[in-house]
Amino acid sequence: MTEAHASAGPGPGDAHVAVFPDLDAAATVARFFARPGTRTLPHPSGRPWLVGHWRDDEMVTARAGSTVLALIGCHTVDHDELHRHAARLRDIAQLDAPARTLPGSFHLLATLDGRLRAQGTASGLRLVFHTLIDGVPVAATRADVLAEALGLAPDEEQLAVRLLWPVPHPLGEAPMWRGVTAVPPGEALVVGPDGRTVRHSRWWTPPEPDRTLAAGAPRVRETLIQAVDARTRAGGTVSCDLSGGLDSTTICFLADRSPARVVASTWPGRDPADTDLQWAEQAARFLPDTEHVVWDADASPLVYTGLLSIDDLLDEPTIGVMDRSRVLHHLPAMAERGSRLHLTGIGGDHVAWCSEAYYHRLARRRPLFALRQLRGFRALWQWPLGGTLGALADSRPYGRWLADEAGHLHDPLPKSVTCGLGWGVPPRLFDWVTPDAARTARRALREAAASAEPLHPDRGMHADLEQIRSCTRIIRQWDRMAARAGVPMASPFLDDRVIEACLAVRPEERVTPWAYKPLLGAAMRGIVPDVCLRRTNKAAASMDAADGLRQHRADLAELWEDSHLARLGLVDGEALRRLARRPSAPGLRDAILYSTISCEVWLRGLALRTAPTTEGKAPWHCDSEPTSPPRKPDTAPSSSTSATGSTGS
């Protein structure tokens, strides 16, 4: 390994790289990415292959002849095992096998006889992007790395799309810069030896959900053990969330079985009806070797805290900024206690439970069974009979549903049963979005609908996969924020192997009105005490959100003063300032501000990051023209960038 400059990466757990083909022209382009603090890993030819930031313990590499493999992230593979994989490799497609079997969460990068492959995770927690620079295909694990090298301005159309709440598949996967392409989760970027053949190749598909709960629970248990072991096997001190919920409690008990010393962290809720602390203390009594830290509830930052000071380098807007202060607040204290990694139970809601939308198909395949279950859901969620029957009768394909919703962007949200049994929550826009921005978003929806395919033909599996991806898009940015704060985060429930094990269990046994997360309970029985598995609810934290609106209304008002979105003509700044003065306005409790705030905060952060360039003016002010270096992304023929060999997503 050679280094272009002395290593001075942004922090532990924040590895990121740009990837170059083995070409003379690529070596020239790579020089634009070599900055102070970057490292370089070469091809066997000596030309640069990877340029970026990483610590020695964040990457493992192995070379065998003309093959070089690299894993970046969390895994259980050492150099010798990776070398064996490299020595056996004869075709770049053979990497599908380790990609589908290795535990952990990582980027897998390979160069073989001039061929290049780069992939992230099926979950979407680790992504790959690519573009063309002077005819050279360049990939990266962050979209902003490519955009910065090109001097690109954010795409205003994509900003308008991100004002939708929520942003439906596939629009949310598009990068924020025109000319940068995202590789869909579950696909790999493959570049031919001439650098001209660029395609996406699918390596992952969701499993068939055909295992019984009894048959599937042992596999869920095994994969969760492996996922936590991958983070704790090195020992030292790790910290864990212990909210009292089933997900974080599971992670704590698994970590307690490891060689690592464990510090469990509990934030009690402000709501007197919140029972998190009681459940957490009950779990802690079964963990005598774990240090249990209980924080002062009133010291916990509220939702909307610190929005004006966020300057994280993010490659897309994220609603995670609303809870950024809450997520990061205790990490310095965990670092003082020696924690090298913070484990969370995030993702358990998305994989151990599942969407009720599976009952749309079950009602046709097993009508009597589905009828009994749906009666329970109606009682549980107060679904009206007429709405339930209407949702079950709606058999529109995904593209038609998306196109129809484009005509209803300003309508009130439909009843929960329509969302629960349908393709998902339909996108909406709000009164402060300008007519021009609304037209742009509506046009983008209709254009996407013309060719959009669901993530799975079964709307239940589609809903599960979309929710997993939506979650990982937030966690991906939180992970970057936490790494910058000094204690990286990890969410074992979002490892691909764990997701697969959960999705393989029959949906009617994963989601039922008669039991709460029965799959997780069955998988953890014997590891987590039965008394801790009896919880049947979770805290909502609605008081923290409502209090946050009231306490931080001045910050929200300031956010819309000289708003970047308003200057771009996407929102009415005065309407938002009026709304900030009415934090108890109807509808705000439904988080309808989140998408708009996330875009505004992202643009503010981008302005802070790029302010020193162009005489104090951020590049994205410049009529969408690139700034230095004066390089525009090449427009490749559609056939060269198509997902050859892919089944779509």
UniProtKB/TrEMBL annotation:
<dbReference type="GO" id="GO:0006529">
    <property type="term" value="P:asparagine biosynthetic process"/>
</dbReference>
<dbReference type="InterPro" id="IPR014729">
    <property type="entry name" value="Rossmann-like_a/b/a_fold"/>
</dbReference>
<keyword id="KW-0061">Asparagine biosynthesis</keyword>
<feature type="domain" description="Asparagine synthetase">
    <location>
        <begin position="220"/>
        <end position="604"/>
    </location>
</feature>
<dbReference type="GO" id="GO:0004066">
    <property type="term" value="F:asparagine synthase (glutamine-hydrolyzing) activity"/>
</dbReference>
<keyword id="KW-0028">Amino-acid biosynthesis</keyword>
<dbReference type="InterPro" id="IPR001962">
    <property type="entry name" value="Asn_synthase"/>
</dbReference>
<protein>
    <recommendedName>
        <fullName>asparagine synthase (glutamine-hydrolyzing)</fullName>
        <ecNumber>6.3.5.4</ecNumber>
    </recommendedName>
</protein>
<feature type="region of interest" description="Disordered">
    <location>
        <begin position="614"/>
        <end position="649"/>
    </location>
</feature>
<dbReference type="Pfam" id="PF00733">
    <property type="entry name" value="Asn_synthase"/>
</dbReference>
<dbReference type="InterPro" id="IPR051786">
    <property type="entry name" value="ASN_synthetase/amidase"/>
</dbReference>
<comment type="pathway">
    <text>Amino-acid biosynthesis; L-asparagine biosynthesis; L-asparagine from L-aspartate (L-Gln route): step 1/1.</text>
</comment>
<feature type="compositionally biased region" description="Low complexity">
    <location>
        <begin position="635"/>
        <end position="649"/>
    </location>
</feature>
<dbReference type="InterPro" id="IPR029055">
    <property type="entry name" value="Ntn_hydrolases_N"/>
</dbReference>
